Amino acid sequence: MAESGGHSPLEQFVIKDIVPLRFGDLDLSFTNASLFMVLTLIIVSVFLIGGMRRGAMVPGRWQSMAELSYEFIGGLIRDTVGQEGRKYFPLIFTLFMFILLGNLLGMIPYSFTFTSQIIVTFALAIVVFIGVTILGFVKHGMHFFSFFVPPGAPLYMWPLLIPIEIISYLSRPISLSVRLFANMLAGHTLLKVIAGFIAVLGVAGILPFALVVALTGLEILIAFLQAYVFAILTCLYINDAIHLH
Amino acid sequence: MPQLDPSNYPSQLFWLVVTFVALYFVVVKAVLPRIAEVMEARQDKIDDDLKAAAERKEEAEAVWADYEQKQRESQDRARDFLKTAHDEMAAESTRQNDALTARLAEQNAATENNIKAAKQEAMANLNQTVVEVTAAATAKLIGERPSDEQVGQAVQAVVGQTAMGGRD
Q1: Which end of chain A is less crowded, N or C, counting CB atoms within 10 A of the terminal residue's CB?
Q2: Which residues of B touch A49 (CB under 8 A)?
Q3: ipTM, 2 decimals?
């Protein structure tokens, strides 16, 4: 967009230092990505705490939204995991709100989308993956390995099926992280590419402009959807770890 | 693609961990207890209201049953009252009827006695007259006046036979 020299649609994903923090070789600088993570933290906290501040018997709009997000994730966990899922509620709720706000903040022009950083989505996904794997072993011990044998499969199929199941299991963090990352990357890149046509086409630029408006609506939908998908897949993985198959 | 530059990974991971963990603690310590508290309070209020409504309903039903009971009782009382009044009137009517009948019978009997007495008197007077006439006629015929007793017996015998013949 209009950023200095920012003609590449990928310019928007560049990490820029705001407050440099270096400890020897370790670079922990406060960057534009960090800024939006902190903004997400603040906005989610204000949204949830502020919404529940009055704790009215009959909720207003704000309180309804806060309660709605709570009930939404509550229902999601109840439907996918059941009663045993209750204790994972805080984690899934935090994941959902964090990713949702990260996605939505990215929809503001000139802002930064930290969920379009593969390292961020991968970190979230690998934490879920490792956590779920540990949960599986804690619940079932060595019996957890039976998860890799599809029930009812004939013995001679095992040499084929077990590697497939293991690969499928190990690819979970990759699919989980790449799904979110790719959606955010593609959406924002597409918006930038089409937006680039607006100024070039002059009066006819109204067409790409209309397209950008429509795609922005779609992207907001995707922002919700991807946060939801991340949360529901985490629930399904937890369910697998608890119940096996 | 800037995302594949590993030089910024430590910073991103560090701030991700910091903000995510901070958000997790905000959620666990501040948000969830509050939401749970508010929703529980609401659920309690709803339950209380429902219970109160059920109690009111029971009360209303009790009042209604009471009302119906009272209505039935008053209907019964009214029916009893009507029956009593009806019986009393019937008894009074019978009593008066009987009294009237008795008085009429009494008067009837008295009247009959009077008639009987008058008739006896008339008959007695007639006998006397007949005896005198017979005695006078006999005296005229045979020139000898029979005693009143003899004539009386003869008349009595004749009148008695006639009386037996059906004449009252």
Answers
A1: C
A2: 26, 30-31, 34
A3: 0.89
